[in-house]
């Protein structure tokens, strides 16, 4: 997520055009890793994420996120991933070898419409974070984290993101 706001239509009194102030020529950003889960028995959905200002998503961060998921979930876990290079790195493969209860199913190449987490990003950017001109990366991370936690308490929305991908027959 970059600090430049995604400008959407807004309401304002006639003749008072809203003005968004933003920093120009900045290199600040917020990176995020996330997972959607579906419980096989009860059909419960969950959303888990990790945000960090000023960082790129790299293998060590992804492996730490996978360790957190391993502590949280019991039983087998199926990871449905896109073909991002970090997902196929040596460290991630080593993690998967040490944790045989994790298995990976890869999405087709260049198919973001099949990835429910991409739907989550679209929702966050176009709804709660639209028209937000954060002054720095820390503020953006704090606000995005708050909206992500709120989203994790909305199972009907999470279920809708998963259903919209048409990958799962039962949900």
Characterize the structure shown:
The protein is an alpha+beta fold and 171 residues long. It has one domain: Nucleotidyltransferase, domain 5. Helices cover 35% and strands 16% of the residues. The protein has five helices and four strands; from the N terminus they run ββαβαβααα. The protein has helices at residues 59-72, 90-98, 116-126, 137-152, 155-163, and strands spanning 30-38, 45-53, 77-81, 102-106. A two-stranded antiparallel ribbon has the order 1-2. Strands 3-4 form a two-stranded parallel sheet. Helix 3 (116-126) crosses helix 5. The longest helix has 16 residues, at 137-152. The relative contact order is 0.20.
Quick overview:
With 171 residues, this protein is an alpha+beta fold. It has five helices and four strands. The protein has a single domain (30-163), classed as Ribonuclease H-like superfamily/Ribonuclease H (Nucleotidyltransferase, domain 5), CATH 3.30.420.
Q: Beta fraction of the residues?
A: 15-25%
Q: Can you list the strand order of the major beta sheet?
A: 1-2
Order of helices and strands: EEHEHEHHH
**CATH topology name:** Nucleotidyltransferase, domain 5
Q: What is the CATH architecture assignment?
A: 2-Layer Sandwich
């Amino acid at each position: 997520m970059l600090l430049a706001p995604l400008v959407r239509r807004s309401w304002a009194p006639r003749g008072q055009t809203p003005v968004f102030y933003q920093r120009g020529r900045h290199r600040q950003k917020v990176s995020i890793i996330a997972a959607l889960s579906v419980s096989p028995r009860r059909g419960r959905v969950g959303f888990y994420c990790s945000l960090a200002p000023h960082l790129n998503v790299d293998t060590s961060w992804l492996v730490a996120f996978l360790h957190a998921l391993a502590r949280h979930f019991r039983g087998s876990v199926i990871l449905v991933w896109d073909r991002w290079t970090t997902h196929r790195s040596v460290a991630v493969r080593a993690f998967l070898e040490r944790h045989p209860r994790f298995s990976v199913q890869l999405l087709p190449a260049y198919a973001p419409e099949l990835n429910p987490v991409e739907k989550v990003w679209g929702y966050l950017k176009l709804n709660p974070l639209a028209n937000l001109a954060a002054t720095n990366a820390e503020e953006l991370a704090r606000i995005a984290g708050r909206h992500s936690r709120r989203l994790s308490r909305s199972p009907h929305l999470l279920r809708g993101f998963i259903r919209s991908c048409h990958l799962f027959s039962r949900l």
